[in-house]
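Make up an example, fold above all:
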Amino acid sequence: MTSQQEHEVKVAFISNMPNKYDYLSFKEFCISNSFEVMTFLQYASYIDGEDKPHKPNPLVFEESRGLGDTVAKITHATGLDKLAQLYTQVTGKPCGCTSRQEALNKLVPYGIKEDNI
């Protein structure tokens, strides 16, 4: 089976799943059909129609204003930001990442000028 055919079978399976976020069922399906098994984060991207490499986050190339920006960069680098997006999609509730990032930036800012102390 070609990779394109495998992709089409996976898409058909996902579209017939009662809950497309059921990664374990998808993983079992792949194993039983000798398909390549994705990680959970790859699967989250796959079901969102993004089965291509992640786009670089422009925040990563900006200077951090505080601890919140640093945490945001780490979560992006490790893929945890995709998990937060998946949480929002599944629950319909915002993950709160942006507000936490801003709060941490205010709590632990970087580059404080000495004359402001």
